[in-house]
Protein 1
Amino acid sequence: MTQFPWRRALRRVLSMLGTLLGVAVLVFIMLRAIPGSQITAGLGTEAAALTPDQRAALEAYYGIDKPLVVQFFNWLGNVLTGNLGFSSRAQTSVLNLTLGALPVTFELAVLSILLALLIGIPLGMLSASKPDSARDGLGQLVGLAGLSVPSFLLATVLMSWLSAKFAFNPNGEAYATLFEDPVRNLRQMLLPSLVLGFGIAAPIMRTTRTALLEVRSQDFVRTARAKGVGSRRLQVRHILGNALVPIVTMTGLQFGYLLGGAVVVEQIFSLPGIGRQVLIGIQGKEYAVVQSTVLIIALSFVLVNLATDLLYRIIDPRVRAE
Amino acid sequence: MSVDIVETTEPTPVKAGVRLRLLLHSRTGMVGLVIVAVLLLVALAQAVGLVGYDPLVQAPAVRLQGPSGAHWFGTDQFGRDVFSRVAAGVVNTARISLVAVAVATVIGTALGVIAGFYLKGTDAVISGATNILFAFPPLLLALSLASVMERNWFTVAVAIAIVYVPIFIRVARGPVMSLREIEYVRAAVSTGQSRMAIMLRHVLPNITSIVIVQVSLSLSWAVLTEASLSFLGLGTPPPAPSLGSMIYEARTLMYVAPSTMIAPGVVMVLLVVGLNLLGDGLRDVFDPRKRGT
Amino acid sequence: MTRGSRAQRGTLSVISLGLAVAMAASGCSSSTATGGSSTAASPKVGGNLVVGITTDPDNLFPWKATQFQAVNVLQTLYGTLTEFDKDLNVVPGLAESWTVSSDGLTVTMKLRTGVKFADGTTFGSEDVKFSLDKIKDKATAAVAASSLASVKSVDATDANTVTLHLSAPDAGLLANLAVINMAILPSESTEQSLKTTPDGTGPFVMKERKASQSITLARNDAYWGPKANLDTLEFRIIPDETSIVSAMQSNNVQLAILNDPLVAKTAQGGSLTVTKTAQLSYHVLQLNASRSVLADVNVRLAIQCAVDRQQVLDTAALGEGEVTGPITSPAYKSDPSSRPCPKRDLAKAADYLAKAGKSDGVTIKTIVSQGEYATSVAEAQNLKAQLAEAKITLDLEVLASDPYVNKWIAGDFDAAVALNGGRPDPDGMYGRYFTSTGNLNKVAGYHSADLDALFAQGKQTSDPTARKGIYTKVSDNLEANAPWIWLFTGFTYTASSSKVSGFTPMANGSVQYLRTTSLS
């Protein structure tokens, strides 16, 4: 076996840290660019009645009276020492909020991806098994539907219909974590992960189909076939095995996006996830909440990418053979 | 919000005439082309005044009417003609997604080519910025852009473009890196041609097909993104209609005047399906991996 | 991003103000309108009621909370010296009774005895003095500070009596004391501790809070009035009104206040009842008379004459509301037909424009918020179309909620489409906008010596009939000078499951009658 590539690992870690720093600067600037402050967010139009003294007192209270550079490094310094800030809305630390919200979104992302793979891969295999046939058309049609229906529409319609017709609406109950009440938790995850999974199944199905078609046309498959490797074994072991790389890439990419991009679905199904935490933070202008949460989302995204790359090394025979 | 990225493969050029023939032969591509063309033709007919009314004129006396001979898709709460608004919405939506994808393509491809060609420091900066944009939640990006800029169809397009730029950078950078090593590019470098000339003459033509495939995927995606932004209240501001904002505004009129929601909804799904099919057709034609299957 | 609901409104019959009427669900619903006063049989004690709300309360400190949801929760936790009954009359609260001296400068309040805070300490006059002094203190930055402007000092005369010394008579004071921003807090309590551990004299006490998910309250067994019927009261956060209705249909939520008429329409029928309540808040086109062409009263009157308010209401809100004048509270209501152009009159509008020397028309930049409330953008679109016919061009600037609020509070606009909160007392409602010293005068953009005198007179008059006369003059003055164009008032919708009884919705949006609500 080869030696552990220290230099490459170090470079990767440095590049990850650079990305995170960039995200930190960007989120800081973007938040400040949005007009308004925690004062106007809290008081709304009543903020017009504040005297200059009161305004100054409130600015000091929220820590937004200091120069921007000082604010930035104060926050960054705190984050580096493990203090993510405090939410005056929730009256708890951002760390506590995140420890509650991150598992919700993580679970939702995992379940959605699982569903997407369960739908997407078999459909892709079905389509690729006989290109331009009726079953290919069927598979492509489902993929097209997944790509063409906006998730907010699907989510709203699904929930309204199920609760009006069947009084079935697990998301109306108080949210339970997987440890508090596994059954209720999974029921609450069912609809949101179906909606998200359906949307993601489409790109996964397409990737699978394309990858399978491509791999099949390659030399080693012809060789294997010529050597008399059985059809079933060829299909699963050789073809699917070699088509895994693009599928894993696509899955990793979608998973990373789900960590920060499931806001609308979390909103419609009242899941207290990380996307909603950012949204509520933006609405309340709780700078520390948004900055730290976005940084955590970016960190998860970067880690998912890393995991995907590591996975390549395991599954890609070409990389392994090096 | 899902994304679709073309995997990078080594590029090979094909003649234009062959491509057009291939597209016309691809069944999906043809269906897509017809759907999109019909929608755009009807929209154009409305825009030049052949059919329908002014999409902005209010006539409260005839508000919330069902479909009729005078108003094919009925009227909305202000008595505006829904058909004319849907037609104008198609133009607006198509314009937003075209501009968004065009901006993303030009900027993203340029940066991607530069990064892939120069490598070293330039690449580090561009790829670093790409990584940051990738790791940044797109919602927050859109939100802050919408709050900072005065909102019109162009700024909405720019907001969508910014989310898509890093994807084009990645798509372009990979093949350029492998092109660098190809004999004739090396030869061009050694004969002392300017880098600009090499990039334009030798590199760019060789990655067009991979970029076009990405464009074909992005167009329909941009239409859906515009709809999502509208759902968050960040889409095209009224009174100018876009398909996304029309669906969003009519969401609660569904029971009172169903046509105000169904008409833009169906047309949007048609447009997205058409663009997707057209994209598939283009991919079949341009994607080097697909040829020969 | 559903900060407010943004929907259009359904075709529902118009009802008279202040009255809550059940929307008969096409004859299949047998449930009648719920009413706090109609407690026929003795209500069942016990049960856990879940109330759906769209947003997590952002601040649980009563003196600073302005968000609707936060105010709702605080109303069940804290007490005030006076209270409103269901018709918005001032009735005793923590003050059992009061007398006003003949010169109107001294108010003596007899406090209720045997009242306890949630932490067990006894309520007394020192708590009242502490609270009122602190609210007046600029350093506290309490939102109701200006309501106590006329109060010179507060004395704790004895353990159960407080005396308020006024600098001038203030007839609006007793009503101002009834809002939750005037909640009496235990002396020596701090904002920091109360934010995490509320400590009030209300019918419920805090039990548990899960940030972004729910706030659960329990019955306060030491409450001074009739004890609440419910064992617990949970405010469950469901960000979308449509989702709240879904949760009600599956009986996970039993009560909700909805703003979106069409969501309310989908809720009715089956086991749910929906009642609507006219609101004090009003939809208005604010003109900024301190800016550009709008400084000329004739331009403002031209706008006033060029608008058909009923058309704005019909198109933007599908008729769900009532055309209104400036004052919306039932006791002082303005007559909407008493204005320069009660009906749209384009000829008169042209005359006014000619008088202003602007016959060629004017252009006015107008800010509109998208997402702040349901009908804003629709109102703006219709106003634009109507005014265009009078050569008045509204340049619409559609803004996200934060930039809009920022411009509004700075008075940085020519015109603004707005939904402003109303109050039961007209002095509290408009004194801060249209008097030269009012703290929102910058936003109103208009004041005059006449209005200053009228508002001062209103404050000094306590006889109800005389007050009504004064505020009618205020209302007429406002319409004659058209600093703003008042449009219409809307409704809120109370959706409840058939098991809920004893809840009375109020015109000021208060949910104080959760204390008499029971579940069968």
Protein 2
Amino acid sequence: MRRLYLELKNQRFYFFVPPVVLFILVPLTVLATIKSGGGNNFPECATISQLFIPSFAAWWPLFILKEYLNSPGRELLFVYKSGRDSLFSKMIILWVFYLLHVVIVFIYFTSLFDFVWFLFIAVIIQSMFLIALGYFLSLLFQNTFIPLIINFAYSSIFMLAVLDSPLSIFENGFFNNTGSLSKSIVVAIIASILFYGGYQIEKRLYND
Amino acid sequence: MITVNNLSKSFGRKEVLHSVNLRLDAKVYGLLGANGAGKTTLIRCMAGLYEPQQGEVLYHNEPIHKSKSFHQDLGYLPQAFGMFRELTLYEMMEYICSLKGIPRSKCTSEITKALTSVNLEDKAGDRIKTLSGGMVRRAGIAQAILGDPKVILLDEPTAGLDPSERARFKNTVSELKQDRMILISTHIVEDVDACCNSVIVIDEGRVLFNGSCEELRNIALNKVYNINEADSDRITGEKFILKVSEMEGKIYHRILAKEKQAYESEKPTLEDGYMCLVKGIV
């Protein structure tokens, strides 16, 4: 955990981007949507949450992967194996860490809406998918810039333009029953496959 | 300690190492070779970073990828070093301590010892990105010697160091060399002469020489001549001009000649021996 703390500290100002999005941008945008519309704005707020929250989930993982893939002397991270964690385990820990931040946002949402926990589950699974995609693509391309661009392009295109596409991990609606999570199950399965694929590349590349 | 058996490594169609065989004991070895000779590839194979196409690297007679102690006993300085640029030097060292599995209780003393030996103890609180190129190189050396490793592989450790830093590096190696194997890859012959007991010369992926510094010097015995420019054409047989210098207004050539000449030969240096080998004047 000390190494993960130092890896996050090494991100310096970039570390604060996800908390700023989660704790300032998302609540303010949701509040503005509620103020501007009459009646129940939950579907709009769900769209805002799905647009901002999952797309920044891969931020910390990609910046950590950058050190492993692009920094001068990165081979040291693979030579000193005795205490090294796998990148896969780092991805899972970072997803859990991000999830804890998202919980705080949703605790705030409970004061605004009745049903938020189905949306919460959908959002954390979407976050897991985008972390898995970033992990897989970074190891595949040996680069973190392309996955970062793909991450934001995917989120923007499918959230803002083609939400109902079968290729979209996002969903419209009220998220008020278990039926609204049917897509999330498929997304979770694809995320697991991406994690598995990434882990296989990691093992092959770094002789674990 | 470390045995390299019949090691070959290719990248695509290009074979970089050709059946390399070495046995390295608790001594300081200099790995000499021109750029592109295969020094870094050999060191990376020895550190377990590259999987060879053929052959193996053994640590205490056990393949390194199966050896539990190898990665704990290893100190490695890569050719390029400069990761975690936003961390302080101390934090970067702390990270490496953790990677090497050094207990946290020992970290502070180990870091202080390593930073003192490279004269960076007063820079512990500075961010890596604020250090000069030479300081980053010294930080790289410090991380390699953290935790008292038994095997130290240094890939061009003196590149970018000024003369006083190089002198300090040589002292550090002298202090460290007891009971451990240190392999220093370089193309600076002078560094090998100053701090190594043995030399390995590699050229186009093949080991040309593996022996003591004295043995390498002796290869150039009776082959080195320092003669006036005007007499240079009188040298018979295969020759190679090592150096052109000026003394009291006259131009002199330091020449390696395959055949015995009519002039008095010079006492050979390590560089003369090395050049004899790579130029085929043996």
